[in-house]
Design brief:
Radius of gyration: 27 Å
Number of domains: 2
Number of strands: 17
CATH topology of the largest domain: Aminopeptidase
Structural class: alpha/beta
Strand content: 15-25%
Order of helices and strands: HHHEEEEEHEHHEEEEHEEEHEHEHEEH
Helix content: 25-40%
Oligomer: single chain
Largest sheet: 6 strands, mixed
Strand order of the largest sheet: 1-2-6-3-7-16
Bound molecules: 2-acetamido-2-deoxy-beta-D-glucopyranose, zinc ion
Distance between the termini: 73 Å
Length: 438
């Protein structure tokens, strides 16, 4: 009889508990991820107040210190800190961005800010991969480490920055050169990466830098019927051919499988301009005195900008052929000490080995490190000479950054937390290398 009553009581309690749960959403890593995803931070009008208040709540519940900075009004960034036992050592920074690109809701299976979770565990939302997953995983990993009694040797900082998707000019670019950043004494940074279709994690150690090149040839004008040497178009065409040959040698390396797309220099013509076209039977029989061409160039970090400029100066737009040029460098290739802007991925960089071992300790495997074809905020930190790896732990996942139906599977998200636990644990416990190593 007594047993029966106990069972009844247990049953009633379960029903009561269950009905409570269904009324107020449970609080789990997945539901916290969903809550973060439901905050619309898409351009052109990202709401930065809402995600920051969400993150500050989370951080406070974990006992992290929080600091909000506004370099530009209405564009705040948030820094969370877990103090280490030796705060004098260079710290570890985990970065993510608050904003996302827009989403065309009518092209999606589920509304892009619903964070709908399907029966097979797919969580659909703009930002699910890029990069709200890592923003929440950092915190969940810290939570788990804390609950296991772990305490870091080095300070661990987590930053959430605005405006990455539109160039980071009012976000990380300003933060990286600020006194606030300097105070953090960052020795190593992890920033966003990309999903991997296979079962090896992708990791990025550099990015390509875009340049725009305009070349211009001058020559004596002449009658359309006259044959003479060194006209403007002739001089320009010599360069166009040389550049086309160079482009071919680069592209051939990709076609032959000797280099990845992002490891070669790409140079593509984006405009050609010379002369006056014939119109309405009105024939222009004058050879032009000016001819121009414009190129989009993407330089991988190992490309030496000085060597490349010399090539332009001596071969592609030499003054001896009456040519001139201008370059718009939309990014730097060398830091203030003249070093190429990429992170070492060999034994000279102790952070690399620690990172690699930490990922492997979770049963994961890293793919061959890559150069990212696009750009992220990581470039602003690498420019300071601080080593940065781009890493988002998503394997067996289609690459859906900026695409319709961006999603991440719950199991992949949960595994990522475990991977960051291992990474944070290992990096923040590293005793050596008190100097910054690039
Ligand atoms: C941003 O979101 C918060 C919380 O949902 C809301 O109170 C606020 O009005 C929003 N701000 C703007 C500018 O939409
Ligand atoms: C450059 O311009 C000068 C002056 O017009 C001309 O004498 C010379 O032949 C030109 N050289 C070339 C290579 O176009
Ligand atoms: Zn991103």
């Amino acid at each position: 009889m007594a047993t029966f009553r106990l069972y009844t009581l247990f049953f009633l309690c379960s029903v009561f508990f269950f009905s409570l749960q269904s009324h107020s959403e449970e609080d789990t890593p997945i539901t916290r991820f969903q809550r973060y995803l439901r905050i619309n931070t898409a351009h052109p009008n990202p709401n930065y107040t809402a995600p920051i208040s969400f993150l500050v709540d989370q951080a406070r519940s974990l006992g992290l210190t929080t600091r909000t900075i506004e370099f530009v009004k209405g564009k705040p960034l948030l820094i969370l800190t877990w103090l280490g036992s030796n705060p004098k050592l260079p710290s570890i920074l985990f970065n993510s961005h608050l904003d996302s690109v827009p989403a065309e809701a009518d092209k999606w299976l589920h509304p892009p800010f619903s964070a709908h979770r399907t029966d097979d565990g797919r969580i659909y939302a703009r930002g699910a991969q890029d990069d709200k997953c890592i923003g929440v995983q950092y915190l969940e990993a810290i939570k788990n480490l804390k609950s296991r009694g772990f305490s870091p040797l080095r300070n661990v900082h987590v930053s959430y920055v605005p405006e990455e998707e539109i160039g980071g000019f009012d976000g990380m670019e300003m933060f990286a050169v600020s006194s606030e950043f300097k105070e953090l004494n960052v020795g190593f940074t992890i920033d966003e990466g990309q999903a991997s279709r296979g079962d090896e994690y992708r990791v990025f150690y550099g990015e390509r830098t875009p340049w725009s090149l305009d070349i211009r040839a001058e020559g004596i004008p002449g009658h359309g019927a006259k044959l003479y040497d060194n006209g403007a178009t002739e001089n320009l065409m010599k360069s166009v051919e040389l550049i086309a040959k160079f482009r071919e040698t680069q592209f051939d390396m990709v076609k032959a499988g000797k280099a990845a797309y992002s490891e070669i220099i790409s140079i593509n013509p984006v405009y050609l301009k010379a002369g006056t076209p014939s119109t309405n039977g009105f024939v222009m029989n004058m050879q032009p005195s000016v001819a121009e061409a414009g190129y989009d160039i993407r330089l991988p970090p190992m490309a030496d900008p000085d060597v490349f400029k010399k090539r332009i100066d001596e071969e592609w737009a030499p003054s001896i052929r009456n040519m001139s040029y201008s370059i718009l460098e939309r990014g730097k290739l060398k830091d203030h000490l003249g070093r190429l802007i990429m992170t070492s991925i060999d034994d000279s960089n102790p952070w690399w080995s620690i990172f690699k071992q930490a990922v492997e300790a979770t049963g994961g495997k890293l793919a061959k490190p890559e150069i990212l074809a696009s750009t992220t905020d990581a470039r602003y930190i690498r420019t300071l000479g601080v080593p940065v790896l781009g890493f988002s732990p998503m394997i067996n996942t289609p690459i859906l950054v900026h695409d319709h139906n961006e999603f991440l599977k719950d199991t992949v998200f949960m595994k990522g937390i475990e991977v960051y636990e291992s990474i944070i644990n290992a990096l923040s416990s590293f005793e050596g290398g008190s100097d910054q190593v690039n």
